């Protein structure tokens, strides 16, 4: 049985070109700065994002944590969106490891109201923690891959600058954002002091994320990576894939976006789901079951038995993610399976 995996773009397998590159990668000890392939990837990432320097990190979660550690001091407060990945899905590491208090603000499609951010910035007062950082997320995972508009990012950057604060962008899917905006990724990255992005999602690398920023920020970040146990040795075997991600896997993301729109439309037309195809900007589709008695967790199991893997986020809430390992043809098959499971079980 062929498996069609729509749970996440993290499930993408390396391309055949990546396997070849891994087998012949020139390597060295990256903790000594001796791995030429890692060095090449870091230079390439910095150049593509329009920043001074970059750091290869084992995961996006570690990249975000390193950013928080590097921008802040323990006891400070960071402002971030209430459903952001850093606040919801990183095991509380900002609080536990970086020792900062998180100040979540409710957003709409990932956008925290600028006035609310402004109100949340702490004035000097003997009782208050100091605000240390503003974190934003583009694309916004929990809002179904919603894209933060460039004007919005600029407003956040201007506010931060006026209050002498840094902005970290959790850009796990920044290339999806740039693709949807039809702009160079530099124009997205320029509104943040640091950016984390994932090589291991839609860009198909097996492992790894990048953190980019100024040279002095990255120098400190490198030390924090070591502290967290993220200093890798012959990481060039992984970096070789990252180079291919940046050079060969970006242009095809628009296909994933078209496919996600297709999925949203088909699910809506089936009558079993409520989706908003017009709000699907990138590769993530949030879908709510129309039937109130149906249980998404149960239904995912039945779909999995037929080879279609989907994600249930709550009792009535599904998430479908498109990526390079599902073709339009696979999606047509998946829709057929999903409809038949619902026809039989709803
Ligand atoms: C996936 C993701 C991360 C974390 O990346 P991992 O490599 O899975 O640790 C961080 N932020 C967002 C928005 C993500 O979607």
Describe this entry's structure for a reader:
With 346 residues, the chain is an alpha/beta fold. It has 2 domains: 13-248, Type I PLP-dependent aspartate aminotransferase-like (Major domain) (Aspartate Aminotransferase, domain 2, 3-Layer(aba) Sandwich), CATH 3.40.640.10; 252-345, Aspartate Aminotransferase, domain 1, CATH 3.90.1150.10. It is built from 14 helices and 15 strands. The strands form 4 sheets. Strands 2-10-9-8-7-3-4 form a 7-stranded mixed sheet, with helices on both faces. Strands 11-12-15-14 form a 4-stranded antiparallel sheet. The model has no long low-confidence stretch (mean pLDDT 98). It binds pyridoxal-5'-phosphate (PLP).
Provide keyphrases for this structure.
Aspartate Aminotransferase, domain 1, alpha/beta, 14 helices, 346 residues, binds pyridoxal-5'-phosphate, Aspartate Aminotransferase, domain 2, 2 domains, 15 strands
Summarize it:
This protein is an alpha/beta fold and 346 residues long.
DSSP strand count: 15
Count of discrete domains: 2
By CATH reckoning, the class of the largest domain would read Alpha Beta
Strand order of the largest sheet: 2-10-9-8-7-3-4
For CATH, the homologous superfamily of the largest domain is named as: Type I PLP-dependent aspartate aminotransferase-like (Major domain)
Q: In angstroms, what separates the terminal alpha carbons?
A: 24 Å
Shape summary: globular
Q: Classify the helix fraction into a percent range.
A: 40-55%
* Small molecules (ligands, ions, cofactors) in the structure: pyridoxal-5'-phosphate
Supply Rg: 21 Å
Q: In this structure, how is the largest beta sheet organized?
A: 7 strands, mixed
- CATH topology (fold) name of the largest domain: Aspartate Aminotransferase, domain 2
């Amino acid at each position: 049985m062929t498996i069609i995996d729509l749970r996440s773009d993290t499930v993408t397998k390396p391309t055949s070109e990546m396997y070849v590159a891994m087998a012949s990668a020139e390597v060295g000890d990256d903790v000594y700065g001796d791995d030429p392939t890692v060095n090449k990837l870091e230079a390439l990432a910095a150049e593509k994002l329009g920043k001074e320097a970059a750091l290869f990190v084992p995961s996006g979660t570690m990249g975000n944590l390193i950013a928080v550690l590097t921008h802040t001091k323990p006891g400070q407060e960071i402002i971030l969106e209430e459903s952001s990945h850093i606040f919801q899905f990183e095991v509380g590491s900002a609080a536990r490891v970086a020792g900062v208090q998180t100040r979540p603000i409710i957003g709409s499609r990932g956008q925290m109201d600028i006035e609310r951010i402004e109100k949340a910035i702490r004035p000097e007062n003997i009782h208050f923690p100091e605000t240390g950082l503003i974190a934003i997320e583009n694309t916004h995972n929990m809002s179904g891959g919603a894209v933060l508009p460039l004007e919005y990012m600029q407003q956040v950057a201007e506010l931060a600058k006026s209050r002498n604060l840094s902005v970290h962008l959790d850009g796990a899917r920044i290339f999806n954002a740039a693709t949807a905006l039809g702009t160079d990724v530099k124009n997205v990255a320029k509104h943040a002091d640091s950016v984390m992005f994932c090589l291991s999602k839609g860009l198909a690398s097996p492992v790894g994320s990048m953190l980019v920023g100024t040279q002095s920020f990255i120098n400190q970040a490198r030390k924090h990576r070591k502290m967290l146990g993220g200093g890798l040795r012959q990481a060039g075997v992984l970096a070789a894939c990252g180079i291919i991600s940046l050079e060969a896997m970006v242009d095809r993301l628009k296909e994933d976006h078209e496919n996600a729109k297709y999925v949203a439309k088909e699910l809506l037309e089936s009558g079993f789901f409520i989706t908003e195809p017009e709000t699907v900007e990138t590769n993530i589709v949030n879908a709510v079951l129309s039937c109130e008695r149906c249980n998404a967790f149960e239904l995912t199991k039945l779909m999995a038995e037929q080879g279609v893997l989907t994600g249930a986020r709550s009792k009535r809430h599904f998430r479908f993610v498109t990526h390079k390992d599902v073709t339009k043809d696979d999606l047509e098959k998946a829709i057929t399976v999903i409809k038949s499971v619902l026809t039989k079980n709803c």
